[in-house]
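Q: Entry one of two.
A:
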Amino acid sequence: MALKTLAGAGVLAPQRPDRVAKSVSALRRFGPTTAAALESWDARDSNRVAVIDDAGVHSYGELNRRSSAVAAGLYRSGLRAGDAVGLLCRNHAGFIVALGALARIGADTVLLNTGFAGPQLADVADREGVKTLILDEEFLAVCSEISEDVARILSWQGDNADQLESLDSSPPPAPENPGRTVILTSGTTGTPKGANRGKPPSLLDGAVLLEAIPLRTGDISVISAPVFHSWGFVNLGLGLALGATIILRRRFDPAEVVVDLNRFNASVLVVVPVMLSRVLELPPEASQVAPGALRIIALSGSALPGDLAQRGLDKFGPVLYNFYGSTEVAWATIAGPADLRAAPGTAGRPPRGTVLRLLDEDGVPVPDGERGRIFVGNKMLFEGYTGGGTKAVESGLMATGDVGTVDPEGRLFVEGRDDDMIISGGENVFPEEVENCILQHSGVLEAAVVGVDDEEFGQRLRAVVVLRPDSQLDESALREHVRGHLARYKVPREVIFVEQLPRNETGKVLRRSLRD
């Protein structure tokens, strides 16, 4: 089945024997990594456009040669297989060059969040044993708390200069094993943890996703989701493996996204839900995408509200794919356009080879329609946190940390984080249900619900709401709206109107800020 999927996606198309030999050799030397993808496509079509970014156009041949030269320079400086390198870059070709270089050495890559404060970066660098930082110039100041013994190498300097180069041409020896990739959790509920992935996903692993999200060789993909985060990172890897042309911008601008979709006749857009919301909020003339080219809008990183899914389908047609997973379990479920239209807000169904179960507090499966803790089993479960510990495991299945329900058609609905549950007056309330209800009001743009301490009820519900520009909605009317759709104990006792919700770089709401 996997080989059939890869053939359908164009990965296994007939090639000249010498090009096949070079691709196989790259896989043997570097494993299923960025280095192997660059080498393979350099052999197949060196002039093929790999990346378009703020610095210009970059071919697969160029990126392959640059990553080889940078690997040689890093090796000569003393970097070796197993050494940890922090990567603190925005979306641009230098990020890919760095990934390819580190894979050639077998170094471990620690993907650092561009939104972290100095103390967080210093803590992560110390915990992960980072020996070298590859970073954009703008982050030099925020990294000042990291030890001076950690070498700094600039990947981007100034406004539009991609700097990652090396004149050394002696390649390092091929590593015995691919280096690890450490992806950090979002840190919205505490100190970010490092999720260790010792095994890079192969094309056979990726075939599971290609069955559910029909990416193809030669796609033109606008990846707006940050590539240091798991959602942007996995799409970057798949795009390179498929020989896609990838458009990267260092900063997200919804109007520029639409311009890029139209200018390059893009077939794929990779975003987090709040980015899609920003695009849909543009004036009609600024959000118009030429019909025919855009086949896929791939979403993940945070919950996709049902109202947003419906607006996206209405605007762009049946092209939305909602991916639900976590840094720890990789993928859990995927919802295609049909499921999103039939059941807005669903996270979808598990892809082939993935097991999904909802369990109660005693580890017993709950009936369909009843709330339970979400557990997942697949080939891509992480190996544990780099600082020690792991997620809860039951019968070989790993917890995502979320709770949800499954409908009679087998579609998952995620109701929120297990630790976000609010107990108000003895009743259990999960924020997402209330948030989705608030978002159904035509005057609301964004909403988040948290629990805050209350002497009478233990906790009370606080709704923090962003109104649309022309909305006249007040607290009383909003509470009445919720009261008309949900149980009385789910009506927020407090409503605060703000201009924008506090979010991290991947679009997740910072609930601690709302509680404070």
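Q: Entry two of two.
A:
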Amino acid sequence: MAAAGHYDLVVAGAGAAGMTAAAVAASQGMRVLLVEKTALVGGTTAWSGGMVWVPANRQMLAAGMADSLDAARRYLAATVASESGAAMREAFLTHAAEAIDYLARHTPVQLRPVAVYPDYYPDRPGATLGGRVLEPCPFDARALGPRFALLRPPLPEFTLFGGMMVSRPDIAHFRRAWRSARSAWRVATLLARHAGERLTAPRGTSLYLGNALAGRLLLALTVLGVELRLGTRLAALRHTGTRITGILLRDAAGAETELTCRGVVLATGGFSHDAALRARTLPEAAGMVSAAAPGNAGEGIGLGLDAGGALGTANASGAFWVPVSRFRRADGSDGVFPHTVTDRAKPGLIAVDAAGERFVNEAVSYHEFVLAMLRHGLGADRPAHLICDRRFLWTYGLGRVRPFSLRLREHLASRYLHAAPSLGALATALGIDAAGLTATVAAHNADARAGVDRRFGRGSDAYQRHLGDADHRPNPCLAPIETPPFYAVAVYPADLGTATGLVTDAQARVLGADGVPIAGLYACGNDMNSVMNGAYPGPGITLGPALTFGYLAARDAARGA
């Protein structure tokens, strides 16, 4: 075991929260070490949509979109179930825009407002229809040079043609390429650009969404001189009295290194893949399925608890939920497809239980969809099924089956996708009630023709309509299911990340059981207990606090250095 120097700050975890803390600390003149136990940086952020929820941000206000912190306070009061954590939410609201502005001035992290993207409960007091959510500006990964190889790629199911990412606006052009000359030209231009990028890179270098955010943060680490160690775990914290003064690192080969430091930031991504913490805090019916990055296994939370920290206990939910379909890739790896925004709200699809009956408004947020599954007794052993017809599958795709797919053989052979010439035959193949499914589709079709979902009110608010098909009338979320063959995919509850974490104060300092900060120890990202108490009010309510409290932790550590 070798002694290897001193750092002002050591950060564990190279997701958005950890990279933000490391970059901000380095910009303040601190000597920073960032350790990441996997071989890649980016964590779940690199797979995500990259949205960052920041009320009353400067960018939206400059673009003429109205918002205020008071409106955001009213909205959170209407969507977060408990008063617990009110001080943390106030710290987030007060400092989120400040954090984004700091990153814009001192790092390559540049965000822009999404003009139209409603909060998830748009009819509640204080909600907005756009601007509150920021997205990363597109990023040319060639700026990373050799370090591009260190960036976790996006999920292959969300790319085209060997790693080509597509921006949100360009998705519409791909869907209209067959019937619009303008869209066809745009798609041809994108394909030509991608072909040029592949001449010198293993995948496309035009990055969007969460991959662009992770790439920009990695560039920030590079420019600011943050030392990076991959394949390295933070194995233990060292104390002098009640203060954290050092760490023990362990690399993939088992070699250990002792370091001294003034502070440690825990940002290892929560406990999505830790069976013991899941059993302790999440519903048993949810099982072990997760859409989070594989490195998120609770080490940071465990170290915080060992140091005297405590877990949050007042959360409405212990995780942020998403329905996923499950499959095995050609290379033998297991995959999950998060059904966030691409299919559930589109017209011509329903979700049913084993009785063949609908149990939820399919267009609600992914978090609310899974909560409905769990309330209804569905779970890891009792999936729901998404049902559609040939027209829907061709137009919108279903899960990992992309729109305009001419070859379905692989998906059918693996039984990821089920097909049948009639609804009764489809129900039999799925093991659900045929009469129930037939009656459910008949009722749905009658409502779809009228444009009103009498059972659940699908398409009745701005968020649902935003995710529907604006070109479809009269209701962008409703269309009949009537063109055989009929198709189905099974969906299961999974987490996008965990909400229960270490209790901290407004500077992201980990609190002991006595409520006193543990000197030199911080937590942010999903290692910190959710400032939303496990509620999911809008797009980016995990990344918004991740960047904000990463920033606050670094600023506090710099003041004490």
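A: Comment on entry two: The chain is about 30% helix and 20% strand. The mean pLDDT is 95.
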